[in-house]
Amino acid sequence: MNGVYIVSTNEYAGKSTIAMSLAIELKKKKKKVAYMKPIGTLPKKVDGQDSCEDVDYIWNALDKPGELKHVCPIVLLSRFAEKAFGEEKVDYKKIIKDSAQRLSKKHDYVVLEGAGNVNQGGFIGLSAGDVADLLDIPTIIIAKYKDMLTIDDILQAANMLKSNLLGVIVNMVPVSAEHVVKDILKPFMEKHNVKYLGLIERDKKLGSVSVGKITQHLNGKVLAAKDNLDKMVETFMVGAMSQEQAISFFRKKANKAVVTGGDRSDVQLAALETDTNALILTGNLMPRPIVVSKADELGVPVILVKEDTLTTVEKAEHLYSHVRVHENQKVEHMRELLEQNIDLDYIYKSLGV
Questions:
Q1: What is the mean pLDDT of residues 17-46?
Q2: Which of the residues 22, 215, 243, 325 has the least number of beta carbons within 10 Å of its own beta carbon?
Q3: 24 pLDDT exceeds 80?
Q4: Can you give the pTM of this predicted structure?
Q5: Which long-range contacts (CB under 8 A, 24 or more apart) does 257-266 make?
Q6: 190 and 252: one domain?
Q7: What is the Cα–Cα distance from 192 to 185, expressed in whole angstroms?
Q8: Do both 142 and 227 map to the same domain?
C-alpha cells in the first residue's frame, strides 16, 4: 500500500511527532493523507468510541481523515487481552488489512504509527514486522538513543522488518554523543545494509509540556493568566531559598515552571522577575493578591495545588518521563528539525512522491 509505517525501538521515542510531521508534509505536497494506528495501546474514548490517546490528537489535528473505526481498529483494552488469551478465535490480521485498505482507497498515502515498540502486538501476530509484512509498507525505525548499544535495538528491529525497512532515524541524541552516532553507529548500520536517515538531537522544546497539561496532571486550580495555558514548560525549579538567592538561581534557566509554597510570596515575586512560564504553588495556600496581580500583568499562569512541594515535583517529573505529542508547537518544531537533519528526499523518493 502507498504510505509509510513509523515504528520505534522503545516507548516515548518520538514516533508520534514524526508520524504527524510527515503526514503534514505530505498534505503540503497536495496529497490526500490518512493516519492509522493499527494497535492502540493507550485506551481513550474518542468521539464516543474506544480508541487511543495519540489518535485523539493526531486524527483530529489532520481533520479526521477516514472513519475512526478504521483509524484505530484494535485497542488493547483489558477485555481485549482476556479475549485474545482465551479460546475465541479472531482474525486480527484481517481486521488490520481491511481497515488499511479502506483508508488507502480514499487517500493517496496512509501514515501508520506503530505500537509502543516493535515487539508490542506480537502476542496476536501483529508485531511491527508482522504489520509491515501484512501491508507490504515501507517502514522507518525511530531509535531512541541510549548509548552505543542502541545499535543492538536497531539491528534487532531491522532484522524483524527485513525488506520493508526504509531506514533509521536516531532520535534524542545528546550533543556529546553526536560523534558516536555519526562516526560509529552510522558506518556500522551501513555495513549491515541498514539505511541511516539522520539524527535529531535531544531537544528541550520537544520534551516540554504545556501549562495546561501540567495543570490537568496535578489537578491544579488556575489563579492567574488563564488564557496562557498553552505556554510550554521545559524544566522545573524549586524555590526554597531567600529572595536574594532566588533571583540569581532562577535566572539560570528559561521557559521554566517554579514550584514553591503558596506562602512564599518573596520567592514567587523573584521568579516573576525572570523568564518563568508558570508558578506552581503548593500546600493549597493562597498567594498574596500582589503576586496574582503581577502574574496576570506578565501573562504568567499561577497554579494552586493541594500537595506539598516534594510530592508535586515527583508528579511533575513523572509527567515529563511520559511526554506525548499533543501540542501544535512541538509538531511544527519537529517539522523544522526533520527538514534540517533527515534525508527527506530519500524518503519521498522511496514513497514515489
A1: 92
A2: 243
A3: yes
A4: 0.80
A5: 257/211, 257/214, 257/233, 257/316, 259/309, 259/312, 259/313, 259/316, 260/309, 261/285, 261/309, 262/286, 262/287, 262/304, 263/287, 264/239, 264/240, 265/290, 265/291, 266/242
A6: no
A7: 11
A8: no
